[in-house]
Design a protein that fits this description.
Strand 14 and strand 15 form a beta hairpin. Strands 1, 2, 3, 5, 6, 8, 9 and 12 form an 8-stranded mixed sheet that branches. 17% of the residues lie in helices and 34% in strands. It has 205 residues and is α+β, with helices and mostly antiparallel strands. The longest helix has 11 residues. The two termini are 27 Å apart. The protein is globular and about 45 Å long.
């Protein structure tokens, strides 16, 4: 299975990172190793080689069929469930990588960096492109978002990615994070919510 992720897909988050509101000319796509996947409420072990690891709360969709070169108008047929995930980012490493024009594999794809919640069939929702989600840490809401604010919508992302990669059943797509990212520390308790459903819960060690 492949883990795709999208960078800079919410304007306010782009301002948070770079000090300006903007939309990239095309979707910013990166991948995570399969060993990055962390599920079933298992703890996230903060790596000792990074001085700051940030949470990035995201809507995640699950690919449900084989596809290549998918038109936008048919992209909704290629995913069947959604959840909330965390794209953990070694922020100090990312800043260095961006400054030097280097790849993101280490800062984004390290072990345990792709946390995934419980899946909810997309038919449970009226519109995947109008879903509210949020993250609580130690009982306090620290990040909120709505998929309607995405710069590139889910169907557009699937179509774009399938131009370059064959999508397969079980592949995952992390669709980008809204404004409000921040660091985690040992003993933090994280809970991810999709509308009124708690779909994600785990601890940092």
């Amino acid at each position: 299975m492949k883990i795709f992720a999208v960078g800079m897909n919410y304007a306010l988050h782009n301002k948070e990172l770079d000090g300006a509101l903007y939309k990239p000319e095309k979707p910013v796509i990166f991948t995570k190793a399969d060993s990055a996947l962390l599920k079933d409420g298992k703890p996230f072990f903060i790596p000792d080689w990074s001085e700051r690891v940030d949470y990035e709360t995201e809507l995640v969709v699950r690919i449900c069929r084989l596809g290549k070169g998918i038109p936008v108008r048919f992209a909704h047929r290629y995913y069947d469930a959604v959840t909330v995930g965390i794209d953990f980012t070694a922020r100090d490493w990312q800043e260095e990588s961006r400054k030097n024009g280097q790849p993101w594999e280490i800062c984004k794809g390290f072990d345990g960096s792709a946390v995934i919640g419980q899946w909810v069939e997309k038919e449970k929702f009226r519109d995947v492109q109008a879903l509210h989600f949020h993250l609580d840490i130690n009982g306090n809401t620290v990040q909120e978002g709505c998929s309607s604010d995405m710069l590139y919508k889910v169907d557009e992302l699937i179509s774009y990615i399938s131009t370059y990669f064959t999508l397969k059943t079980g592949d995952l797509l992390y669709t980008g994070t809204p404004v409000g990212v921040g660091p985690v520390k040992i003993n933090d308790h994280l809970e991810g919510w999709l509308e009124d459903r708690k779909v994600l819960e785990f601890d940092c060690k």
